[in-house]
Design a protein that fits this description.
single chain, 209 residues, alpha+beta, Tetrahydropterin Synthase, Chain A, 2 domains, 3 strands
C-alpha cells in the first residue's frame, strides 16, 4: 500500500489514490480503513517507516543501498544465539534467551554464534556475555570454519574458530576458553558490508565443536 503519511483517525478516505495510512483500506480486510480497524481495539499508530530494497537512502547517506545477502540461523530450544555488530553499543547488556529479540543493529561487520551449555539450561548472564564476546571474536578474527575442540592451533594463519587464539584473551584458544565453562559452539555466521554475494559465505558449516 506504500503510504506516504500517517494522517489522522478522522480523515475521510480518498479511494485508491489514498496515501495517508490511517485512511487507507486495510490490506487484509478490504472495506475497513486502518483507523476503523484500530479504533474498537484501543490501538493507535504513532509513526511508521517504510523501506524498499535498493531505494536511495533519503539523502542521509548519499548512496543506494541494496540487500546482497541474508542468513537464517535456527537452533534447538536449548541453544543460545549470540550476536555482535561492529559499531553497536559495546556495553549492551546480555539478553535472556526468552527475552524479545533486540532491535536491528547497523554496522560494517556482524556475526551470529550458536552456543549450547553442557546441561542444556539457558546460559547464565556470564555465559551469555562470553557468547557475545565470541561473536565479537568472529567479527575481528574472521574464521572460515568451526573446527573441532581437539584441533592443534596453527598460529597466526589459523582459520578454524575453535583453534584460534581468543581475541579478548590472547594465549588461550577459543576451545580452551569454552571447555571449563561447559559451553560449546554449534555454528556461526559472519557478515561484512559490501561483500560479494557469490563469495565465501563465512559460515562455520556443519562441523561441531
Amino acid at each position: 500500500m506504500a503510504p506516504l503519511a500517517l494522517g489522522r483517525a478522522e480523515d475521510e478516505p480518498r479511494g485508491e489514490a489514498e496515501t495517508r495510512l490511517l485512511a487507507q483500506d486495510f490490506l487484509l480486510a478490504p472495506g475497513a480503513t486502518v483507523a476503523q480497524l484500530l479504533r474498537p481495539r484501543g490501538l493507535a499508530v504513532l509513526d511508521f517507516v517504510r523501506f524498499r530494497c535498493g531505494e536511495e537512502a533519503g539523502g542521509k547517506l548519499g548512496e543506494n543501498m541494496a540487500l546482497r545477502r541474508a542468513a537464517w540461523l535456527a537452533v534447538p530450544r536449548d541453544c543460545h544465539i549470540a550476536w555482535y555488530v561492529h559499531g553497536s553499543p559495546p556495553d549492551a547488556p546480555p539478553r535472556h534467551p526468552t527475552a524479545p529479540p533486540p532491535p536491528p543493529a547497523l554496522g560494517k561487520y556482524g556475526a551470529l554464534v550458536a552456543c549450547r551449555t553442557a546441561d542444556g539450561a539457558p546460559p547464565s548472564p556470564a555465559a551469555a556475555a562470553l557468547c557475545r564476546q565470541l561473536a565479537q571474536h568472529v567479527v575481528g578474527m574472521a574464521p572460515l570454519a568451526l573446527g573441532r575442540a581437539e584441533d592443534e592451533p596453527r598460529g597466526e594463519a589459523e582459520t578454524r574458530l575453535l583453534a584460534q587464539d581468543f581475541l579478548l584473551a590472547p594465549g588461550a584458544t577459543v576451545a580452551q576458553l569454552l571447555r571449563p565453562r561447559g559451553l560449546a559452539v554449534l555454528d556461526f555466521v559472519r557478515f561484512r558490508c559490501g561483500e560479494e554475494a557469490g563469495g565465501g559465505h563465512e559460515a562455520g558449516g556443519a562441523a561441531r565443536g
